[in-house]
Amino acid sequence: xxxxxxxxxxxxxxxxxxxxxxxxxxxxxxxxxxxxxxxxxxxxxxxxxxxxxxxxxxxxxxxxxxxxxxxxxxxxxxxxxx
Length: 82
Prior knowledge:
54% of the residues lie in helices and 7% in strands. By secondary structure, the protein is mainly alpha-helical. It has a single domain (7-77), classed as lambda repressor-like DNA-binding domains (434 Repressor (Amino-terminal Domain), Orthogonal Bundle). Strands 1-2 form a two-stranded antiparallel ribbon. Helix 3 packs across helix 4. The longest helix is centred in the C-terminal third of the chain and has 11 residues, at 57-67. The radius of gyration is 12 Å and the shape is globular.
């Protein structure tokens, strides 16, 4: 299994929200599909969906590709420098 969270990534969740669960459900894609294709655990997908951790850039790009949605429609970065 791929490790998707690190201490740094967990700190970033303050500035990043996501619409993964919403988009996944709209497209009628189950967590099990992402688990199988991405090689991560169901707990990892759930943690991303619930905002408990932020995926690596590579994993976020893979998720966007599988859902056929631009990455910035799934993962919304709050600009903290405003």
